[in-house]
């Protein structure tokens, strides 16, 4: 079975389109990139928009909140991690709680992590 790890990141930002979005503290470690879309679809169905799948975007990211664009997910192949970005810093704790609950529900281990710049 593939081991998945939840890790906590420092505050950094990523430019998405014309805006900078802050990283959420929580990222999911995924050694198998083929599992990423399925994991994100389960996350989307359970914690964001019931009954809908994660939608892959043209930039390689995933929309996981049915087009609201308040949170997005990107797979970092070098770090083998799904990283999350939220539109507003004030919402980071809200999304981190959802991501942590999802990880705990699915037996994903917790581990501290720092995002490389």
Radius of gyration: 13 Å
Q: Name the shape in a single word.
A: globular
Percentage of residues assigned to helices: 10-25%
Count of separate DSSP helical elements = 2
What is the distance, rounded to the nearest whole angstrom, between the alpha carbons of the first and last residues? 31 Å
Low-confidence stretches: 1-11
**Biggest β-sheet strands, sense, barrel:** 8 strands, mixed
Oligomer: single chain
Structural class: alpha+beta
Helix-strand pattern, N to C? EEEHEEEEHE
Q: What is the count of distinct domains?
A: 1
- Report the strand count: 8
- What fraction of residues sit in β-strands? 25-35%
Mean pLDDT: 79
Describe this structure in words.
The chain is of the alpha+beta class. It has one domain. Helices cover 23% and strands 33% of the residues. It contains two helices and eight strands. Strands 1, 2, 3, 4, 5, 6, 7 and 8 form an eight-stranded mixed beta sheet that branches. The longest helix has 14 residues, at 92-105. The radius of gyration is 13 Å and the shape is globular. The model is unreliable at 1-11 (pLDDT under 50).
């Amino acid at each position: 079975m593939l081991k998945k790890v939840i890790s906590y990141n420092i505050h950094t930002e990523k430019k998405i389109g014309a805006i900078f979005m802050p990283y959420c503290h929580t990222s999911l470690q995924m050694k198998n990139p083929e599992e990423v879309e399925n994991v994100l679809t389960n996350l989307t169905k359970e914690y964001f928009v019931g009954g809908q799948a994660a939608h892959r975007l043209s930039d390689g990211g995933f929309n996981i909140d049915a087009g609201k664009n308040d949170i997005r997910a990107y797979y970092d192949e070098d770090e083998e991690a799904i990283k999350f970005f939220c539109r507003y810093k004030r919402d980071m704790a809200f999304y981190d709680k959802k991501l942590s609950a999802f990880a705990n529900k699915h037996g994903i281990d917790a581990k501290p992590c720092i995002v490389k710049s």
